[in-house]
Amino acid sequence: MKDLLRKTFGGLNMAYYLRHLLFGVLLGAFWFNGMWHSANPEKQYFLIAIPFMTLLYPYSRWLYETIVDFFTGGHDFIVATPLFLLCKLFTMMFCFYFSPIIAPVGLVFIFLVNRRQEKLEMND
Questions:
Q1: Burial of 102 (0-12, 13-18, 19+ CB in 10 A)
Q2: For 51-63, how does the pLDDT look when each residue is reduced to its tens digit (9 = 90+)?
Q3: Could you tell me if 56 and 100 are in contact, meaning their C-beta atoms sit under 8 angstroms apart?
Q4: What separation, in Å, do the N-terminal and C-terminal C-alpha atoms of the chain show?
Q5: How far apart are CA 31 and CA 51, in angstroms?
Q6: How far apart (Å, rounded) are the C-alpha atoms in residues 50 and 29?
Q7: Could you tell me which of 49, 48, 50, 59 has the C-alpha nearest to residue 21?
Q8: What are phi and psi of 80, to 5 degrees?
Q9: DSSP characters for 66-95?
Q10: 3-class DSSP assignment, residue 56
Q11: Residue 31 phi/psi, 5° resolution?
Q12: More confident residue, 37 or 69
């Protein structure tokens, strides 16, 4: 069980995880503040879900970036800065909001990648 947790939740680079956790905290705080002052009768469910979404965001974002990198082949694109920032913000909000759905897939993928890497290291 300890090995499973190490290969999934501990499978990301610490700098990468902390960077995206910071962005997740910022997005979560922004959304939490908006929900706190909302008249939405179901806001308590969102207020409970936001901390979990914040913790899952780095894994969701990792899966998104892995998929995008696969399709773009690691190439860089030159676009206007406002368009780039708008797309970046949209994808960050998308990954944050859908992190309960995306992150479990990302965690399984991280586990499989780390298990494969460990097997390759054992064979060398």
A1: buried
A2: 999 999 999 999 9
A3: yes
A4: 26
A5: 11
A6: 9
A7: 59
A8: -65, 140
A9: HHHHHHHTT------HHHHHHHHHHHHHHH
A10: helix
A11: -70, -40
A12: 69
Taking residue 61's Cβ as centre, other Cβ atoms within 10 Å add up to: 27
Interval 70-96 mean pLDDT:
90
76-to-30, 84, 85, 92, 124 alpha-carbon distances in Å = 30, 12, 15, 19, 33
The tokens of 103 are what?
């992150």
Return the residue matching tokens 């991280």.
110
Please give the DSSP secondary-structure letter assigned to residue 10: T
pLDDT band at 124 (very low <50, low <70, confident <90, very high): low
CB contact at 8 A, 27 and 93:
yes
Q: How many CB atoms lie within 10 A of CB 119?
A: 10
How open is the CA angle 57-48-58, to the nearest 5 degrees? 5
Token digits of residue 10? 């501990």
Share of the chain residues as helix, strand and coil, in percent rounded to the nearest 5? 80, 0, 20
